[in-house]
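Figure-free illustration: sequence to structure, shown twice.
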Amino acid sequence: MNKLLFKQVDNIGLVLFRVVFGLLIAVEAIGGIFTGWVSRTLVDTPFTFNFIGFGFLQYLRGDLLYYYFLIMGIFGIFVMLGYKYRFSMIVYAIMWTCVYLMQKSSYNNHYYLMMLLCWIMAFLPANGWFSLDAKINPKIKSPYMPRWVILVLILQVWIVYTFASLAKFYPDWLNGSMPALLMEGKSDYWLVGGLLQKSWVHWTIAYTGIFFDLLIVPLMLWRRTRLLGFIISIFFHLFNSFIFHIGIFPYMSIAFALFFFSAETLQKRFLPKKKLYTGNEVFIPKYKKLFISVFGIYFMFQLGLPLRHWFFKDDVLWTEEGHRLSWRMMLRSKSGSLVVWVKDKNTGKKEHYNYGKLLGYKQKAAVATKPDLMWQLAQKIKAIEAKKGNDVAVYLESKVSVNDGPYHLFIDPNIDIASEEWHPFKHSEWILSSPEDYSAKPTEK
């Protein structure tokens, strides 16, 4: 175990990844301003659907968020340059974590992965070479690092890909209908729009997605298949970038290859002046027990969170309970309708509530299909009415369609959602049971 974890190895892969990662997180932050993501998601909406329990982050709202993201971008550049690396990475990690927890209507798995990597990178010796820190203070300059650094990063990548693959083993993905739905909105794409509507393309996407996610890490680990895996990875992620427009995630995923190629290969291609470390020392640090405890607990959570939906009642595709933090990427398409009623508890008067005035465009679409957002909306409405001196019950009439199937009643319309408590690890009984074959397509007449 000591040799596996604490043998010293060349650090060129980590150093190069720091440069790429720093550039990408800087682009993510600054790009969020110029693409309008910050304004649409965080500034122009009256409130955001923060992760439950993090409502205090609403105080970060407003035009100051533009400066907030700009500052994040600057710290991302500092990470890339290796300047005040540890401080810069920790600050970015804190700031991005706040952004991530502040809103759920634009939930994306790469935002979650970015948060995890920021915190992991904050504790890695990624500025030991090819950094301003090492140039300013030669005492920290080092050509090596403990092997556990690479093992931790590879294990994190393996968890992401493996659970993404396993989640695709359900009927609508295996029969190609879900990839077909994903491609429907791409028919106007230049050159490839028509091609993407072909049945054989949908089947190819379905099974390429499964086997790529399942096998890419083993392919990259084995020297004989590493180059093949890398070529496949480039094509796969560039395809995703072009078709799905998912930000920095494809390029960050390509950069993961730096953890797998040999130090000799990376030196030859990128840092020919770096002297390779060839020692075989094993340095057992004083923090050994702490290290094993911290990362042991961390990876227990990483393995447990994607499995938690099996302990909830009903299907995660229907209830959404256990969906987030589980690497369930582009697995289903959901649409819904939502009508909100409020009933004055004193007078008994029940009337329709125009909740649309509280939400932005994307929030309206998200709240119609996700029960935790519905619960938060009900709490928001109750609080707004309480300020007016009204004690109200909030009832929801919601219908949901999964994977272009028929619409079914989703929420019990007779339960006052505003009076219900939220239990993150317990099924909410006001979510109606999934109908049989709820994602089946309506029979054409």
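We now fold a second protein in the same way, so the two outputs can be compared directly.
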Amino acid sequence: MTIQQARTLTRSAFFLLFLLAPLLDIFRFDLTLGHFILFGQAWTLDISDILAGDSVDAAIRIFTRMLLPLIAFIAITMLLIWKYGRIYCGWLCPHFSVVEMFNTLMLKQLNRVTVWEKPFKPSQGIYPKIIVALPSILMAFVWAVGLLSYLLPPKPLLNDLIQANLSFGATLFISVATLIFSFDFIFTRHVFCKYGCALGLFQSLIWMANKRAMVIKFDRQRAKICRSCSANTPDKPCDAACPMRLPTRNMKRAKFTCTQCGQCIAACSKVQQHNPQGSLLHWVSGEQAVEVDRPANIIATKEIK
């Protein structure tokens, strides 16, 4: 299994989990009941029964049942981000899965990945635009219904949706959310991932603080090979493959929002498939990762010495 096949598997599984978690009562917040549902069980913050007992026992139970799991989850998450960066974005995030999906669709139909880029050749007629717009609106509708199912009992919600018997509040929520997500998926999906997602920025900040964290490194000693690298797009294949539109061969600070998806590595590996030395891009960590954010002239001077 290749890296990209593994990513397809993990992203698809997590996307299905994102949609089915409320329906299977794995996780949701029920507004009608006023508390969370976790694996079919009510999960509330009501500790009156605990406090009614012995104070020491109550403190132990609060710590072991609430604080300890929360601390462990935060610690493990922080450690993974510290070592690997925005790995959640590239390997699990449902929104990033949509980003990659519509990148591929828009490139095929409109000859560009975003509406803000200049197409490498003009698209013909209005049909390519319709082929891009309709799936975007449909996916936005699925997202709107999926998010609402985290707040309202999902089975009655789906039943009312099928029978066209939704309440005014549910109809308003789905309509507005569909409109917002449609705009996002068509026009601003990359901008949201870069600047609008608080979770993504949080991961990027932690990752940037660790100079030895895993990062994609460009083999500058073999940089001349890039001169013969061409594609049907204005960018190099590695840059064109990046879902976040980042300069993949640049320093780490220029790749602040890198999601560790490895698309650039796969693109370079494909171009260099007949080269015994392989791709010019690869993941590194430790001291090699430190060198990624050093200017090329400093690295060259160090190598000469």
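Summary for the second example: The CA atoms of residues 32 and 113 lie 42 Å apart.
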